[in-house]
Task: structure prediction
Amino acid sequence: MIHIVCCFQAEDAIRYFCLSRGLGDGYKRQLLYGGMFLIAGVVLLTIIYLLAARALDRGLALPFEFNEMQTDVMIVSDVCAPLPESVTKEEFRSWFQDCTGTQRAIALDQLLRSSLLALLGMAVAAFAFGYVMAGRVLSPLGRITRTARRVAGSDLHRRIELDGPDDELKELADTFDEMLDRLDRAFTAQQRFVANASHELRTPLAINRTLLEVQLSDPDASPELIQLGNTLLATNERSEQLVEGLLLLARSENELVDRKPVDLAEVAGQAVEQTRGEAQARGVEIRGGRPPVHVQGNGVLLERIALNLVQNAVRYNLPTDGWVRVDTEVRPGQAVLVVENTGPVVPAYEIDNMFEPFRRLRTQRTGSDKGVGLGLSIVRSVARAHGGYVVAEPREAGGLVMRVAIPV
Result:
C-alpha cells in the first residue's frame, strides 16, 4: 500500500512539474518513467533498511551467560571502549550492550551511505533508461502527430509510411494513411467538380443574359416584351449570384495554403465603398474607424467577408435613420472586423440558424430580393478557412453585432 501511494503522489508531482514549465508530452512521459523508477528505488531502500535494522536487533542478543568465576576477555573491536582488568558480570553486560549498540549504529550508517550511492546510480540509470524507452515508444507517435499537422494545413499528399513491427502503432499509422487516401480522393473530386460546375453553370447563364440584353436593346421591342425581358434578366442575375455563392462556398471550405499579407482595414474600406451607393439609397449612414490591421490570408476572400457583412447590415436595417458601423480592432493574436447595425430585433435563438445556407430570420428558405441566403454561410466558411471564426450578438435595441476574428 505504501508503494502504491508513493507512486501516485510521485506521478502527480511530476505531472505538475512538467505542466508548470510547459514541457511537451514526450518529456513529461520521460520524466514520469524516470520518476517512477526513482520512487520505486526509494521505497525499496526504505524496506531494506528497516529489515536490516530488525535483523540486527534480533541477532545482537547475548548468546551466553557468565558464571561467578574470573574470565579473561580479549577485546578485538576498534569501536568499543577498553575494559579494566577486572569487571563484574553486570559491568561486562553493560559494556557489551554499549559496544554492540555502537557497532549496530556504525553498520547501519555504512549501509545507508552505500545504499544512497547505489540509489543515486540507480536514479541516473532509471532516467536514462526511461528517456531511451520513452523516445523509442513516442517516436512513432511524434511522426504521426507531425504528419497530422501537415495534413491540417491542407497538404493531403503527406503519408506516415511507418516502418517496423506490426504492432498497434503501425496499425494506427496504416489506418491513418488509408484515411488520408480517401480524403485526398474526395477533395480532388470536389475540386474537379467545382471546376466543371464553374464552366457548366456560368456558360448558359451568361448566354441567357447576353440574349436578353440584345433583345432589350431592340428599339422596336414592345413594352410587354421589354417588361418580360427585364423580369427574366433579373431572374437570370439572381441565378448567377446563387451559382457564384455556391461555388465560393465550395472553394472556401478548405483551409488556405497560399497566404499573403492583407490589411483588414483596407479590405473593409473597399467593401464600404462598394456598398455606399446602396446605403445612401436606403437612407443608411455608414460609420466607424478602421486602423490598419494586417493578417495573413487571401485578399479576395477576406473582401468577400467584409462585403457580405456590410451588405447584410445595409439591407436588413431600419426604414429610416438607420446606421452601420464598420470597425477594425487589434486583439492579442487576432485581428477583428466588427460590423454593427441597427435593424429589427433578432432573438438569440435565431442566431445559429442565420449561418446555415438558404436560411434567414424567421424563414427557412429564401424568399426575398435581398440576396440568395448564402452571405453568412460564406462568411463563416471563409473565416474558418483562415483559421478564425465569426460570432453574432443581437443588440437590445435591434440589429446585430458581427465580429470576425482572424489570427495575425
In short: The first helix runs from residue 2 to 20.
